[in-house]
Amino acid sequence: MTDIATLSLTEIAAAIANRQVSSREATQACLDRIADWQPHLNAFIALEPDEALKAADAADAALAKGESAGPLHGVPLAHKDMFYEAGKVCTCGTEIRRSFVPDTSSTALARIKAAGTVRLGTLHMVEFAFGPTGHNVHYGDCHNPWNVAHAPGGSSSGSGAAVAARLTFAALGSDTGGSVRMPAHFCGVTGLKTTVGRVSRFGAMPLSHSLDTVGTLTRTAEDAALLLGLMAGADPADPTTIGGDLPDYLAATKGGLAGLTIGIPDSFYVDDISSDTAAAMDATIATLVREGANVVRVSLPDQRQLSAAAQVLLGVEASAIHLPWLRERPQDYGAQVRARVENGHAFSGVAYLEALRWRGPALAAHLAAVTEVDAVLAPVCPAPSPTLAETDVGGSFNAEAVIQGITRFTRPVNYLGLPALVVPVARAASGLPVGFQFIGRPFAEDVLLRIGAGFQRATDFHLATPELPA
């Protein structure tokens, strides 16, 4: 193995378990790449090399005695800096929490850690997870590894950039309005947004309790299945989680595309998209058909209404969470995040309650429209990644319009609480990645992972690795 860091999560976990690679070798391989890439990407907020190597040595010593902590024993990982770990600084990408040390740990993070992982540090993010591009006035902007002048996506910007550049084998992210799916699309990795209630949100920085979900950024759908299997399920600390038996997510990835039906929207998601995105849609459909899937057209309810309702929920709930800081430390917000939080106060109580009330009927209407399909295929964004310069709008009068233009294909999924899996499907003429989302039924992540893995067996877009900038 000439470059350990380029292995997938499942591959490195197996290599360490079989003692073909040591945890120290895997950890050092990541640290070496981080040293090369971090000056270009700014993907990490904090790096802990000495602690990571010490933990890797302990993992190797345990394995030498026949002791394994779990399926990710000795695997080095880093995650978005909004998942609390007791005793560790968690900045949430903001000046307000630069020195915040939680006394509790995220359930999702703890479950992955219990599987034996080694902590590399923490990954960059948009301030308070409230933005789709990767800008951050407090810790500097994060950059896209395919072209550092371009946005990596947000708010899980460091997670997308670090996984794409092979600095970590996988990373946790959050998705409230597209914050897992946007970096997956912009950076050319696999992004899983889970169903609301599938993964505990306890100990993950809240933004909108109606919309927040914990997700993953990985190199493959198989890797996403491995992480989901570790995290999913009921959590007494989060009463919104759903109990009961869980699917075998890894087993689901072994199925093919034959016999599945994929729906293609006849409007909204195919309107006003770039030529690169349109070409990617045609090529993706051709691959699905070639692999045995049945592709049909579907007419979805008005997605613009869903997006507008999501904006109401997000605005009001974020404003409520941030009210104490807005009163006490308004000067410590970046201009864009402060403006967006303050905008939430403009929505009436009636508008908020109507957005909540309509959520159930809207989901029922959506499910009625997709009864004949296993998933819906749609772009994540109308175009590949824009530049950081052209999206550096701060808190200007047109900032919300720019943000809405980027996220209009992701917000409806959050409003409905549905799962979605993004996989790389093409490369644009510019060389930037293009990712599409497969949108599923509630708690049908296993079906999405089956589709994603089948697509990735037939294509190699997920294997592409960016080159270190000169």
How is this fold's topology laid out?
Blueprint: H1 9-17, H2 23-41, E1 44-47, H3 49-64, E2 76-80, H4 107-113, E3 118-123, H5 157-164, E4 171-174, H6 181-187, E5 190-193, E6 214-218, H7 221-231, H8 249-252, E7 261-265, H9 275-290, E8 294-298, H10 303-328, H11 335-343, H12 349-357, H13 359-369, E9 375-379, H14 399-407, H15 411-416, E10 420-427, E11 433-439, H16 445-458
Parallel strand pairs: 2-3, 7-8, 7-9
Antiparallel strand pairs: 1-3, 4-6, 5-6, 5-10, 9-11, 10-11
Helix pairs in contact: 2-3, 5-6, 7-16, 10-11, 10-12
Give the uncertain stretches in residue-range form: none
Strand line-up in the sheet with most strands: 4-6-5-10-11-9-7-8
Approximately how much helix is present in the residues? Answer: 25-40%
Count the E strands.
11
The H-and-E topology, N to C, reads as: HHEHEHEHEHEEHHEHEHHHHEHHEEH
> Biggest sheet, open or closed, and with what strands and sense?
8 strands, mixed
Tally of individual helices = 16
Structural class: alpha/beta
Brief descriptors of the model:
470 residues, alpha/beta, Amidase signature (AS) enzymes, eight-stranded mixed β-sheet, three-stranded mixed β-sheet, 39% helix, Amidase_dom
Question: What is the gist of this entry?
Answer:
With 470 residues, this protein is of the alpha/beta class.
What does this structure look like?
There is one protein chain. With 470 residues, the protein is of the alpha/beta class. The protein has a single domain, classed as Amidase signature (AS) enzymes (Alpha-Beta Complex), CATH 3.90.1300.10. The protein is 39% helix and 12% strand. It has 16 helices and 11 strands. An 8-stranded mixed β-sheet has the order 4-6-5-10-11-9-7-8, sandwiched between helices. The longest helix has 26 residues, at 303-328. The radius of gyration is 21 Å and the shape is globular. The two termini are 25 Å apart. The mean pLDDT is 97.
